[in-house]
UniProtKB/TrEMBL annotation:
Domain ACT: 749-830, 860-938
The organism's taxonomic lineage, starting at the top: Bacteria, Pseudomonadati, Pseudomonadota, Alphaproteobacteria, Hyphomicrobiales
Annotated region (Uridylyltransferase), positions in chain: 1-389
Keyword Hydrolase among UniProt keywords: yes
Catalysed transformations (reactions): [protein-PII]-L-tyrosine + UTP = [protein-PII]-uridylyl-L-tyrosine + diphosphate; [protein-PII]-uridylyl-L-tyrosine + H2O = [protein-PII]-L-tyrosine + UMP + H(+)
Name by which UniProt lists this protein: Bifunctional uridylyltransferase/uridylyl-removing enzyme
Gene: glnD
Annotated source species: Pseudolabrys taiwanensis
Cofactor: Mg(2+)
Domain HD span(s) in chain numbering: 508-631
Regulation: Uridylyltransferase (UTase) activity is inhibited by glutamine, while glutamine activates uridylyl-removing (UR) activity.
């Protein structure tokens, strides 16, 4: 069954008619009701105003409820916004008439007692979301009068008393003009002015003077200001339009971008309605219909967002995405949830908004309303000929450093040109003229089986993908034009596809393109935080460079299918690679990398890398040193492209450790000798950083740590730990805590130094849970003198560091009290809510895996499930109650999904081999997720 919302958007959106606006309130009945209230009222003006506000508030609440019902019925967002605006107009009209008649009557108004009430800003556009503010401008002939001031105040106070947020100004026409010249925000507000009530000639005079004295000859200034404002807004909201929790109003591709387009068009082309842009040649009919569809869809989402949350919420967060999807009529398909289909449609609309922006900007540049850079203007004067041929082609030319079709039929004559244009743009560092992008988009039907099988087209595509000249940007333009999804149909299936989880920050296609960008950065040696991959990429065999780019481009291409995307992706790779001319051996390497692209990340973050069996098992999967290099590079790029702060020093250290532990096994080297050399190198590096310590003290401290510590912990943390341990010992403390911050990961770090014992991790986790802190990962080490040095990473709660530090200090204090036995953790933790906030939006099927194959000494217990505050405490307490010793723990969180791995033995130090006992462990741990057990239940 197709989505009703998608079916709806196949129809052109019409402007709402008077019938569409409906009667959210019965104005005649409401006015009669207010007249009756006024006649019966015996109190003063303030009391009458209070009664008036209460009655109007009730009408507004009922009207918005009716608007919500109509929106659910007809699914027309723009109609809903127009209905609410029309209702607001009626409320203000009734209020104005009531005020003039009953509060401040003027029998013989003078020339000075004229007033025009004008809607400005968003309200001036005639569209309001349920929670939108309203902006009013009271225009007077030349100066304020006592009557005008009283009427304006009465209207405003009454509107405020109804609960509305009202922006307002009272100005003469001269003041409007003067302030518009000085302030771009005021200028934009008046640009959208709409007459509501009062003296119409005043409004007309203001508009005429505004056009003549403010707008005329200032188009370039206004356009520059609005585009700069747009860039700053995007920076604040997140530059990518493919963020998985987008801001519907201010995000890239959101409503404000459409508003900015129309402000610019209205100012430059002096139009009053969007459809007039067709007459001016800015849009063609299809593009204008696209503008309408985008606006209607975004208004639908925004209105539903306000109705669902009961407030002016603009961020489409995870916890409300599913409800909005269901309201809009989206349904589940195999491999894709209803919410994922809705968000895919959202991102496609955001892309369309970006396309419309490019069209308008191109028209502005051609008409010189948008300023070109100073250097470009100087060059244009020095070199009058603006167009020139591009070497190697007669089909394309360059104009102002942008590629353009030389003739109208270049794509029909030779469809390979649909790939060649991107190859030429990349080769000659050319941007794309919007007319060329338009022509490409209109020629997409030419991309069929013949072009996909064309040897030259595939060779050009491979060169684009593997170029050292910014392949990410060119591939993104191919994607935006629709070429990439047509030329590689499997990629087309993941275009604008979001993954409904808190781990991935971007849509699947955006993630894949960012991966290519990260890889190209490593290729140039520019990735300062990926030194190992920067080094390895120049040590792989030359033919494997293309293998790496192709594998990274394909690694998530099978997302959204019912089966495992790694296996399905490998199958796609085996079909696709021969198209690109890759040999059978290279094709198999690409397929292997795609199928195993998650293995290294999983092993590094959730296995004991100091356990020889872990390394042997991983080496058995990888098999060759060349594959190890390729997988290391791919894994690094994949993690780094997930989102800001996901790649960090800790993960880099784990990947580096796993690589250097595995390489000798695959090359036939002596692993223990190699390991000892790397431990010695790490210790030497530490000695260099700690030259202020006395040699004997430094060597004594180094001897406290086992080899695994020196290999797994990065240098900054080693230095922090050393100074922390030194200060603790100098103070003769047996227990101490330290607070730190990792701004790249947006986490707070708590380090605990205490005597080691089996319940230590559980107590630390319980104290964090009691304080409502969520543990996202943990690094646990034991020293040679029986002390534990544990670093716990917590989700931040406050943006300001001083606020977060106070919170973290309270949590650290709770940990110390719990370790001293001053708190009863089971009772306190049970009082906390098991799950709250955005986490409720997700469902993760809990799973417990127990095996003895990843360690010679320990049984590995891997627990996967929905993360929540207190989960680690419940898991560790349960394991302890089951009479299991926890040798090491590896705690990782991927958004809402917790993956916690425990290496355990029984009380005698033996592995758990009994099937009956393994089944009992599974039942107890699964029960925690099902809510059937309490922390510590046996």
């Amino acid at each position: 069954m197709a989505s009703l919302a998608l079916e709806r958007d196949a129809r052109p959106t019409l402007e709402p008619t008077a019938k569409d606006l409906g009667d959210l309130i019965d104005s005649t009945a409401l006015m009669a009701d207010l007249e009756a209230l006024a006649a019966a009222h015996t109190g003063g003006e303030r009391e009458l105003r209070t009664v008036l506000a209460q009655r109007l508030k009730a009408a507004l609440v009922a009207g918005k409820a009716k608007a919500e019902q109509l929106l659910l019925k007809d699914r027309r967002g723009r109609h809903c916004a127009a209905r609410i605006c029309h209702m607001q107009d009626e409320i203000i009209r009734i209020l104005f008439e009531f005020t003039r008649k009953h509060l401040y009557p003027s029998q013989n108004p003078s020339e000075a007692e004229r007033m025009a009430i004008i809607a400005t800003g968003g309200y001036g556009r005639g569209l309001l979301a349920p929670g939108s503010d309203i902006d009013l401008l009271f225009v007077l002939p030349y100066k304020q009068t006592a009557w005008g001031e009283s009427v304006a105040e009465a209207i405003l106070y009454c509107l405020w008393d109804t609960g509305l947020k009202v922006g307002h100004a009272t100005r003469s026409i001269d003041e409007c003009i003067r302030q518009s010249k000085a302030d771009m925000t005021i200028r934009t507000a008046i640009l959208e002015a709409r007459f509501l009530l009062g003296d119409r000639p005043l409004f007309d005079e203001m508009v005429t003077r505004f056009d003549n004295e403010v707008v005329r000859n200032t188009a370039a200034e206004f356009v520059a200001a609005k585009l700069a404002e747009r860039e700053e807004r995007h920076r604040r909201a997140g530059q990518s339009r493919y963020l998985v929790e987008p801001n519907v109003k201010d995000g890239k591709g959101g409503l404000r971008d459409l508003h900015t387009l129309f402000w610019i068009a209205k100012y430059v082309y002096r139009v009053h309605e969007p459809e007039e842009l067709i007459e001016r040649g800015v849009f063609d009919k299809q593009e204008y219909q696209l503008f309408q569809r985008c606006e209607d869809f975004l208004w639908s989402v925004r209105c539903h967002l306000h109705f669902v949350t009961g407030r002016p919420e603009e961020r489409l967060s995870f916890d409300i995405q599913r409800e909005i999807a269901q309201r809009l009529g989206y349904t589940e398909h195999p491999g894709q949830q209803d919410v994922e289909r809705f968000m895919k449609h959202y991102f496609l609309i955001a892309k369309d908004v970006g396309d419309l922006t490019a069209i308008v900007c191109a028209e502005l540049e051609d008409s010189h309303a948008k300023s070109t850079p100073v250097l470009s203007r100087m060059m244009a004067r020095l070199r009058p000929v603006r167009r020139h041929e591009i070497s190697g082609t007669k089909d394309f030319i360059a104009e102002h450093n942008r590629i353009l079709c030389a003739k109208a039929n270049v794509f029909e004559r030779d469809p390979v040109n649909l790939i060649r244009i991107f190859h030429l743009a990349q080769k000659h560092n050319l941007a794309f003229h919007p007319d060329a992008m338009r022509a490409i988009t209109r020629s997409l039907k030419l991309i069929g089986a013949d072009l996909r099988d064309n040897e030259e087209a595939n060779q050009l595509f491979l060169e684009i993908l593997t170029s050292k000249n910014d392949p990410e940007t060119v591939l993104r333009r191919m994607n935006e034009a629709g070429v990439l999804g047509r030329f590689v149909p499997a990629f087309g299936k993941v275009v604008a596809m979001m993954q409904f989880n808190m781990y991935h920050h971007y849509t699947v296609d955006e993630h894949l393109l960012r991966c290519i960008g990260v890889l190209a950065e490593m290729d140039r040696g520019a990735g300062t935080d990926t030194p190992l991959s920067n080094e390895l990429i120049h040590k792989i065999r030359p033919e494997n460079r293309a293998v790496l780019y192709v594998a990274l481009f394909l690694h998530d291409i099978a997302k959204g299918r019912p089966e495992d995307h790694s296996i399905a992706g490998a199958r796609i790779a085996r079909r696709f690679c021969p198209r690109l001319g890759l040999s059978a051996a290279d094709t198999e390497t690409v397929a292997w990398l795609v199928e195993n692209h998650l293995v290294m990340s999983s092993v590094a973050q959730s296995r004991d890398l100091s356990d020889r069996k872990t390394i042997e098992n991983f080496a058995a999967v990888v098999q060759t040193a060349e594959r190890l290099k390729l997988l290391t590079i791919l894994t690094t790029a994949d993690i780094k492209a997930v989102g800001p702060g996901v790649w960090n020093g800790w993960k880099a250290q784990l990947i580096r450790t796993l690589y250097y532990e595995t390489e000798p096994v695959l090359t036939g080297g002596f692993s223990e000798v190699n390991r000892a050399q790397r431990v010695e190198m790490a210790q030497t590096e530490f000695r260099e950083a700690m030259k202020d310590w006395r040699p004997e003290r430094l060597e004594a401290y180094i001897a406290k740590h086992y080899p695994a510590y020196w290999l797994k912990v990065d240098l900054p943390h080693k230095i922090e730990h050393a100074r922390f341990v030194q200060s603790t010992e100098e103070a003769a403390k047996t227990l101490a805590t330290m607070v730190g911050f990792d701004n790249t990961r947006a986490v707070t770090e708590l380090t605990v130094f205490a005597p080691d014992h089996p319940w230590l991790l559980s107590i630390i986790a319980g104290a964090c849970a009691m304080a409502g802190a969520n543990i996202v990962d943990a690094q646990i080490y034991t020293t040679t003198d029986g002390r534990a040095l544990d670093t716990i990473a917590l989700s931040r709660e406050f943006e300001r560091e001083d606020d977060e530090e106070r919170r973290a200090t309270r949590i650290a204090d709770s940990i110390e009290k719990a370790l001293r036995g001053e708190l009863r953790l089971p009772d306190l933790v049970s009082k906390r809510a098991a799950s709250k906030g955005r986490i409720k939006a997700f469902a993760v099927e809990p799973n417990v895996t127990i095996n003895n194959q990843w360690s010679h000494r320990y049984t590995m217990v891997e627990v996967t499930g929905l993360d929540r505050p207190g989960l680690l405490y419940e898991l560790t307490a349960t394991l302890s109650k089951l009479n299991l010793n926890i040798g090491s723990a590896h705690v990782a969180t991927f958004g809402e999904r917790a993956v916690d791995v425990f290496y355990v033995t029984d009380l005698m130090g033996a592995q758990i081999t009994s099937p009956t006992r393994q089944a009992a462990i599974k039942r107890a741990l699964i029960a925690l997720f099902a809510g059937e057990g309490k922390a510590g239940a046996a």
